[in-house]
Every structure is written in structure tokens, then in C-alpha cells.
Design goal:
The structure holds two protein chains of two kinds. Chain A is of the alpha/beta class. In chain A, about 30% of the residues lie in helices and about 15% in strands. The chains are: A alpha/beta, B alpha/beta.
Amino acid sequence: MKKLNDVLLDHEPGSEIMMGNWALVRAMIEADVRVVTSYPGSPTPEIGAAILGLPSEKRPMYFEWSVNEKVATEVAFGASLNGHLSCAFFKSVGLNVAADSFVQLGHMELVGGLVIVLGDDPGANSSQNEQDNRHFARLSYTPVLEPASPTEVMHMFKQACGLSRDMRMPVILRLTTHVCHHKELVHYGSWSPPERDDTPRFDKKAGPYIPVAATVFPLKQRALKKLEQVRAWADDKAPVQSSPGSGGTLRDDLKKKGSQDWVDKPSQPEAVFETPLNRVVDNGNCERGVITMGLPYLSLIDVLADAEEKPDILKLGMVHPLPRETVVRFLEHHSEVKILEELDDFLEQQIKALAYDRGLKTRIIGKETLEEWMGEYTPDKVAEVLRACWGDLLPVSGEIPQVEEHLTARGPRPPQLCPGCGHRTVFHAVRGWLKENDIAVADIGCHTLGFLPPYEVGDALLCMGHSNGTAAGLGLFNNTRRVIAFIGDSTFFHAGLPGIVNAVFNKHNHTLIVMENGTTAMTGHQDHAAGGTNTRGPTVEIPVQQVLEGLGVTQVTRVSAYQEDKLRAALDESFSTPGFSVIIASHPCMLKKTRERRRQGKKPLVPVQVNESCERHYICLSEFACPSYQIADDGGVWVQEDLCIGDRSCMQTCPVNAITPRPKETNPKETDND
Amino acid sequence: MTDKFDVYMIGVGGQGIGLLSEALARAVWASGQDVRGVDTHGLAQRGGTVVSQLRVGADAHTPLIRAHSAELVIAMERNEALRGVLSHAKPGGTLLWYDAVWQPLGVRIRSEVPLKRESIAQACEQLGVTERRVFVEELMDARMQNTAILATIAHGGLMPNVSRENLRDALSDLLGGATLANNLSLFDGLSGPGD
């Protein structure tokens, strides 16, 4: 098997096992995307990692981790105005951050094309909700293509590029978590670096680009018109029953149909339409049909494997705008059609309205319970939904033997802070400092995990950067309950600054703890603005402390996150006078640091041990709760050396000083020098 | 008859289950069979339960394995072995597990009792699942537990049509230098002639 870089830059067509996020990068390269921007968020950071894995001199596009999704969208927009095919990618809730700029894009003539890749997260695998971003598409008149597999990611991204460039409009490629991370054999096309002319071609005559008051309406009308053209095109292309065919370009199709709005556009590279957007699986069933899309389609195919009767399936690749004629044809040929739709009833509402308008008698079965609005449409979920709809369709599943109760009554294992994590010492110290009625406002990052036992520090959470605003509100009419807020250093720049400025400006009364670890840890250690490096090398460092001081925060205390006594003293000091204050609790991310040590060939640090003076207070085990500490059958405490990284942050928590570094001579491969 | 063989892998974030899954996927691919899969990414990797799913055969379309339908469950940790066998093992299937113990929080805050090794055998027996426990004394590096699992698969022929050579080549593909040499030496020692 080839190395990922060789696959991504392969000049010849080939095939390789790739996850959806990697297939996307190959597609970007084949489509000659010039500018890619993002803010890291699951399930999409592997896209950035794959791009950055390419040697910088061979990287065929500009790529940056922007400060947040809104800025990422704006950078991609600006590049598109100059004629560069651009792409911004981010997670589901990233679109909320980007929204103010994103919703305007449809009004603009995007000369170079702009594809927004969304990593939606049905099942809330790593998000604070499972919002259905198709609603944003409707709100902003933006087409949405939704692939089901890495192979479709590859093809549909290229289709999205063609569509966007040809129509000069934004296009969304909507992925979901298990499309991003699904690995399968992907056949890719040929690629050779084209001759490029990167002349900045922005021409305001191609606009107008200033939507203000009355000038909005021609722009809105154009956006709506484009959307109807896309709908007509999608209907004409669909449905097809064969595998990848030889479709022409959107340009050809529109010319064939004699579209007047098309012919005067300047020449653009040819769009690539290699797979059908929408597909009918004809099982010869006149009674029952299913309309579905994306991953639920694959789940459906798997679930139907054992079914005696298989419904016909219309699998939509374009989920917005709805290809109405395609849907009508499918409805007309079936007595009952189930809309198998993950998350909200986005298509169901439109399809029911369409059937009403056309006077169709087909029974359309949408969501029947609230459960059908929730969670990922895995094969198990799809089987459940189908059984509720058509009780006779699927065979009865075999009996699963039961086990004795003592074998089943074990709790889940949620993620936890890593051994040596500076956040752990902060939460352990803060837990001991907080009074019963105090309020701790959490934010997004690894430190969100502080709300879990045993620390239970974190009482409210909305989204990235909310903590200062929320804490300010909790502080109003409140002289009795202390309010503290948390924020990570990447989130500080992402969405934290306005809340901090507001706290200074409006003289709010809470303390912010900045959990500074020098990186965007949760999503895989991407650079942020205070780190001194970006995707291309060294850059200006923007230190958190200087920013705070520059914003007028008068009380800023910097403490090593490993020093619990000093943290508690800083908190006491902060609340000794009213007003807004900040504590920067700083310690580098130890997961990152430990990996770097290993990569540099440095010896691991000597792990700690629990010596004979242990009196079984169990603070290390149950309150500080570093996962390295384990309980023995006799009630003693021991250190799991596969986990301990020798950071020693635990030593201060033992009331009888029973935690000491293990003598290093027992393993010559270790060192006690950091 | 459906052409599929599902491998449900479970462990704790940090145990390197992604590498195990990658090696298995490569070995299956080299054996000439269709393969697809999916790993856990993101925050869930931080010390929480981590799952990787691998599906072999032309009739597997999603990367997601249905409950109680995996022909092979592979677990890298004792508590996760129980979790995985209960949720995904197919009656008549196999649980292959490495007996490392990373106690979950419930045990460390003493609200749950530590899980005994025998409980895994009991669960397997009651579910009609064949149990294969792996444990290597004096393993040089905990990250080599994956290799002990791969070697056991090779030794027992636990993946249909996947040969010892397919697995060995996959390891060679993914590792390099001294790490590779150490892992191959462990693999060769444990995979020996098949039984």
C-alpha cells in the first residue's frame, strides 16, 4: 500500500483505502482548489492534517487554520472573488459561527467558486448538539450535495466545485461523522499540476458586491433564480440507474435546455460530473418505496439484505434544492413512500407539500415518533424505524442469550483528562476552593471534561466562547454566589474576545480562568494565534496575557497550572475585590509534549510510585483521579506504568507524601531530567 | 447467505487501537477481500472507550456493525472486553482480548468493584461466544499488545482467508526501524505454526 502523501499527489489514476476526509483532499487536488481554510472541529480536522502532511513545497494549495469559522469563510470568499476556487471546511456548529458571513454568500457572484464542506454530527459524537445544517442551506439559498461514502465524497466534491464555479454560487458538501471517517477503497483520477495564472482578478463590475437596503433585491432575486436553475439541472440529471456514467457539464446541460442566463458567462474549467447525483434502486416494488440520502442509505441497504420484500429506493445526492420532478416520478410509482431521513423532517415537509400541490394520492410516511428525530441512522436505528413503519418487512431477529446481572451492571467509560494534564490540577484545586453555591461556567475544549466526576466543576455550557457572557449574566443582582468562568487559549481567540471586552466595558463581576495549554488540543493539536507558528512556519506570537492587558483587564494573574496552592491563592485574591479579573493557568498540553519527546527519541520520564507510607486516603485515586492510579484487591494503591508519564503533578495531592518518583535504576531507559 | 465478516474492536483511548485496525484492514485488503471500516476520532480518544469497526465482504455497505452481529470482537482491555462482547458479539462468534487493565473511573472512585478475569469467561459462556485471552509476561512496551493480538489472529486463523503473511506484511508496512524489528520478533514468536 502507498503512503497517503503519494496517493494524494499521485499523477496517475489509482485506488487506495481512504477515509472520507482523505478522499476529500484528493478531490481538492484533482479539482485544483487554490485556497482552503478552516477552524478545527470534529469530524473534519483530518482534512487539515492530510493537507499539512504534504511537504510544503509540494502542497498544491494555500491552507490556513483561521482564527474561527467566520474568518475562514471570509478568507475563502475573498479568494473566490479574485477568481480562485476556494473551500472552507468545519464542523456542524462551526456554521453557526460562520453564519453572519455565510448567509450572504448566495447573494454574491463567486467568480472562482466556493465550496463549504460541513461535518455534521448526527448522534452528537463530539458536539454540543446534533443540529441539521440543511436548514441553513434553505435559509441562504445554497445547494447541498450529500455523499454517503468516501467514493461519493470524492465525486461529489468535484461536482460541487463544478457547480459552484459554473453558477458562481456557494455549494455545500454535507458530510456526517461516519462519512468523514468511513474508510473504503476509493478509485481516484489522474492529476498533474496545471499551468496556473494566479492574477488577482477581482472586478467589482462582476458584482455588485454591496448589499444595502434596496440593492439587496436584485441580488436576492439572482440567488433564487440560480437555485431554480440548479433544481432544474438536478432533475434533468436524475434519476439514473446505472453506475458512474459519462455526464456532460452543467454548462452543456443548461445550453441544451436553452437557458438564457448561462451563455454569457466567461469560460471556466470544465465541471466534472462522474457519478449520478440521485439514484433509483429498482427492486420492482410498486407498493413500497423509500426516499433517503447519505449514510442512512447505506444503512438501509445493509438492513434490507435479509428482507424478503425490498422496497424501491430513491437515494438523493442533491438534498437542496429538492429535485421535485424526480421525487414526483418516484411518488407516482408507489402506493406508500417512507421518508427515511436522519435528524429533522427537512425533506418530509417539502415532499408532503409537493404531493399536495400535485394532487398525488401516495401515502407519505414521515417521522412517526420523536425518537426518529434523534441520533444517527445506523443500521440498527434504520431497522427500528422500518419496523415501526412496516411491521412485516424485516425478518424477526434471533434471540440473544442473556447474561447474569452482575456482568451487565457496569458504567460507561467517558473520555477523561490525560495523565499529566494541567487542567486536572486546576479542577482539583478549584473543586476544593468552590463553595456549595458558587457557579462555574464551562466552555468548549478538553477542559469541558471538568464537569464530569470526580471534579464536577462546570455547571452551564452553550458553545465556543460563551463563558464570559454567561458568567456576566449570572453575576447580575448577585452578591452572594461567586461566579467563575473557564476558557481555553484557542477558544480565547476564536470567540472569547467579545465576552472579555464586554466584561471590562460593562464592569462585570466574575473571574475568568484561561486554561492555557499552548495548542488546540481537543481536535489534534492545531496551531493557534498565541503559539508562534502557523501552517507555513514561524509567525508573530500574540500572547494571551498581553491581549488581556491591552483590553484593559487590570487584574491578570499568571500561575503554573501545576501549582494548586498558588491557584487557590490567586482565586482568593481575585474575589477579594469586586470586578472582572483573569487568572491564566498555564501548562503545556502533556499529550502533545509526550508525543514530541517520543518523536525526538528522548527517554520517557521516570513514573511515580506509591510507597509504604500510604495511609489510603485515596486522594490520588478518587479525587485527583489521574487514570494512572489503580486500586489493588487488598485496597492498596498502585501506579499503572503504561499510563504514568512521570509528570509528578500528583505528588502535591498526597497528605502523607507517599507519592515519589520510582528509583530510575530499575529501568535504564528512563530519565528524571525533563 | 450474506457475504460479510464483522470485526468489532474496542479498547481505551491511548491503547493504539487505530494502528491495530489499520493493520487488519491492510491485511484483509492484501488477502483480496473487500474491506471497509471506521475508527473513533476526536475527544472520545482521550481515555474513553474507543471503538474501531472493520467489515469484510461484498455485502457490507456501511462501516457500522449491528448489535450482536460481529463474528470477531477484539478487546484491548478487560473492562472493554466485557462491554464489547455484550454489545456486539454474535452468538457463535469469538472474543479475542488482551488482558490489560486500565481501571475505569467507577472502580477508582470505588463505586464499582474491579472486574475479575473470570467474569469475561463467564459472559462468553453465557453468550455462546468462544473466548481467547492473550497476555504476554514482560512485554517490552505496552504498545506492542496490538502485535500480540495480530499474532494470535495469525496463529489461530481467526480471520477467514487472511494469512499469517498478510498480517506480517501489514505490520511491516506500518512500522519502521527498531520498532518494526521488535514487533516482528514478537509476532514471529507468537504466531508460529498455525493450530
